[in-house]
Amino acid sequence: MSADVYLNVAVGGILTGLVYGLMALGLSVIFGVVRVVNFAHGEMMTIAMYIAVTLFTAFHLDPLIMLVPIAAVMFAFGYVLQKRLINPFITRPEYSQFLLLVAVAIIIVNLLLIAFGPDAQNVQTSYGYDSFQIGPLIVDATKLYAGLAAIVVAAALFGFFQYTRPGTAIRACADNYTGALVVGLDVKHLYALTFGLGAACVGAAGCMLLLIFDVTPAVGPAYTLLAFVIVITGGLGSMPGALIGGVLIGLTEAMAGLLFSPSAKSMFAFGILVLVLLFRPQGIMGKRTAS
Known about the structure:
Blueprint: H1 3-34, H2 41-59, H3 67-86, H4 94-116, E1 131-134, E2 137-140, H5 141-163, H6 165-175, H7 177-182, H8 187-210, H9 219-234, H10 239-259, H11 265-279
Antiparallel strand pairs: 1-2
Helix pairs in contact: 1-5, 1-8, 1-9, 1-10, 2-3, 2-4, 2-8, 2-9, 3-8, 5-6, 5-8, 6-8, 9-10, 9-11, 10-11
């Protein structure tokens, strides 16, 4: 195979990896602030994907056009979920949080099975088979649009945390929980806001991934596992690390699918995870904790 083939596959993998990174970014934000590992993360994304499928089927609304409204719906879902259900478990042992969120994940999967059945569903947009040629590089239009949208959403999230008062308050809660309480911050509200933002990220990522992959209720756990691989590779709690980890896993999957077989993608993604855990346990962008 020529070098052009490898270049095209690599670019496609990087664009897909940007969407993976946005998906994992939601998980990283939630853990970094609330210190709760969302074991229903991928299942929440499948909710967004099915909302997008339903809107496309009924009204022919492009998932990219509906990205913001669907993200808003997922934000409200995440906010209420944390406020009403998860918040009482914040101070409980970690195994209680684990069991709660695994139960939520199982409920979501089964509700989606009841509502939509087990068959794969997708959307066929007008640009589904379009591509752009830049010299020897041929870029799939859907992956390009999805990757660019992921960059825009991630930049908006970074801007929110850096330049807004709620974002500053959330970072204060993450840095010093007791200090945030002392200065009068509404920590419960800020935790729910953070969980809502994480859910909005995964909702936006779901709209983008729907342009690239089919959706079934069963893919939720697989996406949850993939999000864990990405955030651990990039550095748990690190927002830039989530994006870098997503790009690395997307690139690895694409090249593994080309050089070996599509079924080998997961093997190489987990191989990257093993190497990172061996040589940099805190992740690529994670900070080493003092012993």
